[in-house]
Amino acid sequence: MPDPLALVPYPQSVIWSDGTWETSSPWDEISVGITEDLPRTEYALSISPTGANLTAGSEAALADGRNTFAQIVTGSEGSIPCVTISDYPQHAWRGMHLDVSRHFFAVAEVETLIDAMALHRLNVLHLHLTDDQGWRVEIKGYPKLTEIGAWREQSLIGHMSGEESAWEFDGTPHGGFYTQEELRGLVEYARRRGIMIIPEVDLPGHMQAAIAAYPTLGNFPDQRVGVREVWGISDHVLGVSDEVFDFLRDVLTQVADIFPAPYVHIGGDECPRVEWERSSAARTRMNEWGLTRVSEIQGRFTQFAADVLSEAGKRIIAWDEVLESHLPDDTVIMNWRHGNGLKSATGRGFRTIIANNEHTYFDHYQADPKGEPLAIGGLTTVKDVYTASFTPQKLDEDQQKLLIGLQGQLWTEYMPTAEQVQYMAFPRMCALAERAWGSPEQSWDEFEERLRAHLPRLDAFGIRYRPLD
Ligand code: ACM
């Protein structure tokens, strides 16, 4: 019989049967339980004319089952088709990244994104909490991080192109931050929906906001910098003094305590070395550390962060640039620069997340720029996401096993509002979720038709998405 409901991601096995379950309170009536009879990642959901039953092999699988049930119930208006579903994900890591530094989003706006992620059985929210343009997490003992570092006086209008003298600014202060209490609340909100929040403290680059707050964290404390008002990559990176490492210990320890997840993301991307090259303190440090190349300094930061987090019982995740130095074996690599990087990361034995900027960067245009709001550039359509070949080079079986999942990225330079974030995230996130779940492979035409029928659920959740063509 035809599929009466368009589920996205599509479960591994769906068997429809005749009849409907008539109910006005499905969430009160469904019976739910954990069972040892199912593998930990699996859930089974059956709906018959007399009721619904959901069993799962673990809390995580139960959350997946509830989220599938939410899709079935949304828009069903009290008459729910009978069906038997058995389902499990292919990938443990089904992530969405959100940059709350370039633009700040209120807790309620992040919660709405979490709701929509859960609806698609995504299970990781990666919060990019710090960057040159704004520091967004309260750190006890460092009040200026949020008094000064969380605010920029104005933001660039349009792209950072042409002569600097021709750049225009909006003249409007932008900022905000989350208290530790708010973040703990968000962690709990997400946990109840089956989502783990991974915090990112990007280091040692992308630190201009912190240096603006505490100039002694930089390489040239006499040279005052503000919180960055343009996009791109800042040359102002962390200095190498004891004070800097004490600061990192405090920040990472507090962040590790706020977020119960077993990982902390330490960034590591795009760290220019020009300041270290010019700094006599950096040269002295290199001698002390026995380093011959400035490029080796970053490895010291990575190792320090890994050691501090290890004491807190956590492992590090980092962007793939960190592969340029020695790494702890249990580091998880987030591959963003090119899919070819998967081969070297997994070849060295690192567990790796696919987050490449060819298919998973949702700050790219999703159609001809002429008809779209300003974006950073590039073109990644929902079809590109659905049909992407995520592993361009052949990986052997051991390497394949090290690919723990997929993640979409929402860098927000050109997303000043939560509505704009939603527009850029959806419906590409639906396609990403289907790929991350590892639904049975279908044609693009089948997926597009199913997605079209699924979109009213996003309406029901109050999500503003880009309509399909
Ligand atoms: C990145 O896009 N800089 C990870």
How large a portion of the residues is in β-strands, by DSSP E? 15-25%
Would you count the extended β strands for me?
A: 21
SS class: alpha/beta
Uncertain ranges: none
Look at the structure and name the CATH superfamily of the largest domain.
Glycosidases
- Spatial extent as radius of gyration: 23 Å
What is the level-2 CATH architecture name of the largest domain?
Alpha-Beta Barrel
Widest sheet, order of strands: 14-7-6-21-18-17-16-15
Largest sheet: 8 strands, parallel
Q: Which cofactor or ligand species appear? A: acetamide
CATH fold label of the largest domain: TIM Barrel
Q: How many DSSP H or I helices?
A: 16
Number of domains: 2
Shape: globular
What's the average pLDDT?
97
Give the CATH level 1 class of the largest domain. Alpha Beta
Question: Percentage of helical residues?
Answer: 25-40%
Account of the 3D structure:
The protein is α/β, with parallel strands linked by helices. It has two domains: 13-87, Chitobiase/beta-hexosaminidase domain 2-like (Chitobiase, domain 2, 2-Layer Sandwich); 93-439 and 446-460, TIM Barrel, CATH 3.20.20.80. The chain has 16 helices and 21 strands. The strands form six sheets. An eight-stranded parallel sheet has the order 14-7-6-21-18-17-16-15. Helix 3 (107-119) packs parallel to helix 5 and helix 7 (242-258) packs across helix 10 (297-311). The two termini are 28 Å apart. Bound molecules: acetamide. Residues 269-270, 319, 336 line the site of acetamide. Acetamide binds at residues 269-270, 319, 336.
